[in-house]
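Re: the 160-residue chain
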Amino acid sequence: MDLIITTSSGKPIYEQLKEQIKDKIISGELEPGYALPSMRDLAKELKVSLITTKRAYQDLESEGFIVSSVGKGSFVSSTDIRLLQEYKLKEMEDSLRRAVRQAKVCKVGLDEIQEVLSMIYKEEVERWRRAYPSDGSGSHSEGSSWTAWRQRCPGGTSPP
């Protein structure tokens, strides 16, 4: 499983692992029933503490993304993928609402917000392409619109 951790992000490593595994589950890259690496193997592969991987797996289990069985391992849960996608869309909308509130405090207009969002989006698309060069799906193209996003993540609410 390809996971990228960085010490420069300011985000705890267990959260980085948790978010990346969540994203892989929501995108369908990890299907229900998929056996995740053992906590020990993942810690060894990533050169992190066993406590770090254990915390990420515990959080994923408590949020319903994985199920764990002593002696058998951890597996992607069979939760309806649309519910997981809805969760991610809601998370995105909440982040955008916080950004809009901050922009209003700083007296930044809609045009400038859209310009900044477009720049950030393009940077992230490029980062994604560098991190996952074998992904030839083109699903993260720069011309992607809200409609295209909704087709990839059905069940979402309308934009704020």
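Residues 135-160 have pLDDT under 50 and may be disordered.
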